Amino acid sequence: MDFRQITAAERTDKMFPLQAYAFMPSPWPAEERDKYRERMQYYESAVSLVAEEDGQALAGAAAFRMQQNVRGLVHDMAGVASVATHPSARRRGLVRELMRRLLRQMRDEGCVVSALYPFRPSFYARFGFVGIPRHRTASFSPEGLSHLTRAELGGEVEQVSMADGFEVYDAFTRHLLTRRHGFAVFDEVRAAGFRNDRYWVAIARSGGEVVGVLRYRIDRSAGDLRASHLLTTGPVGQALLLQFLGRHVDQVSRIVLTVSTDEVPELWGTDIAVVTEGQVGGPDRNAPMVRVLDMEALTGTPAGPGAVTVEIVDDELIGGVWQLESAAGRLSVTKGTNPVATLSAAGFSGLLYGVLDPVEIGVRGLGDVAAVPVLAEMFPRRMPYIVADF
């Protein structure tokens, strides 16, 4: 078995058959292959690995070069995707070996963290990944926002096509990258592929500054307005975009909007009737997962007061004994001795991302944590919001 990195141009022959069989209706029409080939210009910066036997690709995996905010510090991130295996080669450990090679290569090339959307979470848990929240959807009638339609909010909303609004939309997401824990963006090569998506973009401005963006499409008259994430810098941007949505009364019957886990749509209006739900279930609706690839690169992360030495076990990327110390609100990570707590890679990643507290780590079998008060103060609970889908 040969394992090697392939170019974006090779992906159509090597990875498309694997991905199409795994993720698409099949047999697929010939034009799907041509569409895939056209998209490969946006994969030039991705790292794509395959396992080959006699020249035939039996399995593949890839990582997008991305960035992610983790507790206020922006890191290079490996966004793992395109993981697929030919049916005849499954249960042979090929994806396991590809993942091992891919994560190590991305770490060596500067990625500090990694994220993915798993087909089976328990499989990726073996590689040190831990789950983070999946986004929610809010469904409601535009009448529920009627109180906003005539309000003077001190701003305006511009509606443009994605092609015309791409630069503003992309710049705003990169601005949110610096502000929101868990937020992730693609590099410029991959992001350019979204320019020609068939979406409208609503751009909210106040005082001449962009304060919110919303990507959406309308399926039909009296149908649904389906929007992606409600992205804002605060309540003014949110109110402007909700006002814009409310003005679609008598045009659409329902608005379906993607929101974060800390959003509370039932408080958007006094009389709003809304269904907010999150659906998680494999293989296509699982919550994202994350992990740390480089411990020492976490130095500088905002953290609560405290100092503790931990051992991370059974992980070739971040395994070892580490001294974690917070001075002036910033984390310092160095090699240490005499650990007082034992963690798996998933356990530590859960602490860092704020989705698990030390007690939960012990309950879930992700570590033997004796320093619960210190770790809880250094890494307080904080829900990440990744947004990017890949």
From TrEMBL:
Signal peptide interval: none
SUPFAM superfamilies according to UniProt: Acyl-CoA N-acyltransferases (Nat)
InterPro entries: Acetyltransferase_Eis (IPR051554), Acyl_CoA_acyltransferase (IPR016181), GNAT_dom (IPR000182)
Cited Pfam families: Acetyltransf_9
Gene3D superfamilies, A to Z: 3.40.630.30
Molecular function as annotated in GO: aminoglycoside N-acetyltransferase activity
Domain of life of the source: Bacteria
Domain N-acetyltransferase residue range list: 1-152
PANTHER family: N-ACETYLTRANSFERASE EIS
Full protein name: N-acetyltransferase domain-containing protein
